[in-house]
Amino acid sequence: MEKENIIKKIGLFHEDSAWYSHKENAHKHPIVKDSFYQRTDTIGLLFRINKLCIAKVKYFRENIDNFEPMKYHYKNGFISVPLWDSDFSRYKASGFILDFDYLREITVYDDFVSLCKELESYEITIQINVPYIKIRIIKIIDTHQPGFVECQFTDAWGVLHIVHEKIPVVTCEDIWTDSRFPADGMIRCKAVKDWLDDDGRKLITVSTQTPDCVEATTGINEFDLLTHQLIDIA
Questions:
Q1: Comparing 152 with 121, which gets the higher pLDDT?
Q2: C-alpha span between 46 and 57 (Å, rounded)
């Protein structure tokens, strides 16, 4: 279905066992043959249409969980979208946003390797310097790769928050529909401030907007938590 969505989005037409583009005042141009379309995946088709080499296809396939597919909305700025609808990819750990045009401009293999190393250098920094909210993973809600789960946690005021998120964002465990639920999980966040409430409790206000753009189903991404509700990886 995702590949079909790409075909519709780009406006390709089918003829003589291949898919073609046809722009006004221009000859039709072959994009992919049926044989390639049938055997490839969403990344393969998306990158072929955007004329990206196999080294970039291979890297993104192997590291797709580290990227968030996005496109630009004239009112809302960069927004998260399904992979097939993406024009940009945000590397979660660094926040850097790459577009297909930029990737296509990298024609020297060593330059692409340098970019990959730069992106990956942020993984260790982020992992050891941000707190995590303790959560409970309740159930699988979508089996489309990489899989989505419903998670819950309670804030300092006793309010229950529900989050729907990709599995790799909330756990390193290999959980699936046959796993035992609820399961423990964590959501990365950024400390905004710490303070004392009227009862003298030490609270920490955190934002889940950074680094993974996580929010509750209500749209909230800032929460007041007690210190024991956080895991500080230092």
A1: 152
A2: 9
- Is beta strand 29-33 parallel, antiparallel or unpaired with respect to 67-73? unpaired
Structure tokens at 138: 């309740």
The Cα–Cα gap between 68 and 129 comes to 21
Neighbour-count burial for 182-218, b at 16+ CB within 10 Å, e otherwise: ebebbbbbeeeeeeeeeeeeebbbbebebbbbbbbee
Task: Note the pLDDT of residue 157.
Answer: 97
Report the distance separating Cα 215 and Cα 208, nearest Å: 6
pLDDT above 70 for 103: yes
Q: Is the pLDDT at 75 greater than 90, yes or no? A: no
Would you say 100 and 52 are in contact if contact means Cβ atoms under 8 Å apart? yes
CB-based contact 136:151 (threshold 8 Å) = yes
Alpha helices in 50-145 (DSSP H): 54-63, 100-105, 109-129
Q: Residue 221: is it exposed, middle or buried by C-beta count within 10 angstroms (0-12/13-18/19+)? A: middle
Q: Give kind and range of the element (H or E) at residue 46.
A: helix 42-49
The string of pLDDT tens digits covering residues 120-134 is: 877 644 454 568 999
Confidence (pTM): 0.52
